[in-house]
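Researcher: Batch entry, complex prediction.
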Amino acid sequence: MGMIVALVGIVLCGMLNSPDAFGAERARLRHLTSIYFDEKGAGLKNPEGVACTDTSALVVGDTRNGRLLRYTVENRTVRPAGEIRAPQLSNPVRIQLNSKGDIFALDGKSRRIVRFGAGGEFTEFLSPESVPAPTTFIPRSFKIDRNDTRYILDVFSARVLVLGPDGKYQRQVEFPKEYGFFSDLAVDFKGAIFLLDSVRAAVLVAAKDAKTFTPLTQSLREHLSFPTYLTTDSRGVLYLVDENGAGIVMLGQDGSFLGRQLAMGWNEGLLYYPSQMCVSDKDEAFIADTGNSRVQVFSIVR
Amino acid sequence: MCLRPKWISLTLVIAAVLAASFAQAQDKYRLKPGAAGKLCLSCHVDFGEKLKSKFIHTPVKTAECSGCHNPHTSNHGKLLSASMKTVCGTCHDKLIPSKPVSTHRVAADGDCVRCHDPHASDNKANLLRAGNALCFSCHPALGDSLAKIKFKHKPVEDGCLNCHDPHASGKSAHLLKSPMPELCVGCHRPDSPSFARQHLNYPVAKTNCVSCHNPHGSNTAGILFDTVHAPVASKRCSQCHGAPTSPTPFKTTRPGLELCRGCHNTMMNETFSKSRVHWPLLDQTGCMHCHEPHASTQKKLLRREEASLCGTCHQDTMEWQARLAEKEKQERAALKGRPEKGAFTHQPVQSGGCSSCHLPHASDNNHLMRQASVVEGCGACHDWLKHTSHPMGEKYTDSRNKNLKVDCLSCHRAHGTGNRYMIPFPTVTDLCIQCHKQFTR
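Model: Structure tokens for the complex:
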């Protein structure tokens, strides 16, 4: 009897110490619904951007239609909430929202980050202040954390720029010397910055206030083809969007592989060249299913 | 003192016993005289002819066949006493340095007989063929091009081994005996007036010579690579670099693509007016990701041939193509000449013609496609699509998704799927019933 108790104890300890324990358990994506249209019934065309908040707001970058679409998500029901069209934004490819509901969109054509107020009015082009030389920056992607701190993946000057909520320069973390090509970055609740190397199919990390990036994973090529988007949820699970392989790969905070979900296809629940992904605190995942001209909504079943 | 004679006697006895046991061991198997080698020739009579060669491998010369072969049984071909790598390595253990920078694949694999005759040969080092002919037997493309080129590099004609170590190099890539430019300046003295004049007084003695010159020779004077960037051909280095006398003569006058924009302004403007730019173009390496700044063997100064170049970043696509090609090969062999229907792979992708469908710099279309319309894009080669096919185009909505129109990619994937006809399902029926559900069994 004592031996059985000891064995159970050892197994429990092992479970608690494993990367899969509780916070980073394996999860499944279960399809809930898909968004095909705006409020007037016009179809989406190759949407590449999607951003969500915990307060039911959802913004879609309807890329080939050159507009942003707003939706509300309540009780897993998605309702259109208007359209934003602006001459400053013709090709929205990445979207983020801050805590005030302001919308930030990266324009793939002008390669500038455009800011809209919560009401949808154009506010400004994001222009970092007091950035050290080289002052030129070209954003490939960006993220805004819960404190409204902005993180810009500057591919021209090979660095991640960290800007305060007021747009003022705070610090920068330079890219490592050896890398393939960084397509995206993510920031977790601890302030760690993650970089996604699409060419090497690997993730790098810089802990909060660290000055350099170090590898978090080896090449994940056996699990994915060409990842182009990276995001994280409130538990610290990393989600990699495999654009060419049409799937989502999940990693623990330590880089451990937690699983791969979804596959290539046209029917609901399947993906065709997915782009951006957003995970809300309500365990809902929104994926811009670009090739299928829709946004799919999934619940994360843990 | 009185013990000394006893000790001497004891030592002598022990020595005698040891000598006797050694002699017994020697004759333990009652081997016939010459059993280690000479005896072998009594059966392998044709081997006598071989021994008339100019160069005979030492163990053969000393008649020690059992140095390499087991006379009775072996788990290795030719009754070798161990794997070829181990057998050869017993004596030749220093051919590959402990920390090689580059290694000849055959040497690393221990496939020594690809180049050497283990018994005897009329060529030095028991090589199978003399001079460069041996190298060209595996590197035929290089041999063919060297035979045709106009401007030859003398050391290459004299022998590949002037620059390359055939086994491994502890100092340099490409099996070079020394790293560049050390290897080059061994012959080409950079302090000579003509060298300085040819290089417009730029201090190139410590730069990478193969940025401009083809070390094997070329059809361009000065053995420059055959595609030369116009400023290099017209010796206007300072168009991009500092003056030869400046403290940083090789530093470019502007960073990244801003430098290239100076001349290629129209192309740049056109590129950056598109909705989608190939992202690597926008970092500081910019154009140099794909193009050589000085000279190249490839058209448009590409760094490598297209498939390999695109595959540098898009490894997933190229690895997939390799797997599909292998599958095609295996299935073709299994068909034994019977006709096969439907391709596994798309010919332009297989042959590295990525730019047949994609624009490498920028495009207004998804995936940097040349054409906005998939039907038009595919129709550029498959013209029958335009007159006889399944209904396709803007008028026809995909029944699986109201936002999609029926086009070629509704049923096929241009990079292949592992199924014939490049369809995403194992059978044509599986594909058709995706939309024509009434025919589902």
